[in-house]
Design brief:
Blueprint: H1 6-9, E1 12-15, E2 26-30, H2 43-52, E3 62-66, H3 75-84, E4 90-93, H4 96-108, E5 120-124, H5 133-143, E6 149-154, E7 157-163
Parallel strand pairs: 1-5, 2-3, 3-4, 5-6
Antiparallel strand pairs: 6-7
Length: 167
Amino acid sequence: MEIVNRVATSSLVTVDLEEYYHPGERVLLDIRDWLFQGLLLKEKEFRAYVREHDWEQYDNKNVAVTCSTDAIVPVWAYMLITSRLQNANHVVMGSLEMLEFSLFRQALAGIDLQDMQGAKVVVKGCGNLPVPDSAYMELTRLLTPVVSSLMYGEPCSTVPVYKAPRK
């Protein structure tokens, strides 16, 4: 009797989100120290901080720009900072978690959904890289309109997530 690996011969398509992980360094730029008492933006002083700041340290890095205090920061201030981050790889306003989601969203937007049309897809679960839950949600959002079924886990042990209605 021949032993057959049914997983290897199945029509399942496996998606490993670790393949979409951006390897670049992540940096948090908190502007609270650029504000008067951490709460008030004084334009002249703020512009001086922006002018004198070492922007080269962010070159080719992924940057999350935030203000960790409850200050009201005008939009132009974030625009001014972003204008100085032109050599950064990726820039978002918010936390490192938001940065991670943005990096994944950008990478997942490159998936050719035609390749997944009608497929039975397994999204690999365990791994070594920090894949945020939001990336799994984004992948689910992208795949459910095109796949016949979506599962989570390993091909030999999956949890059903979605099954397309019969037409």
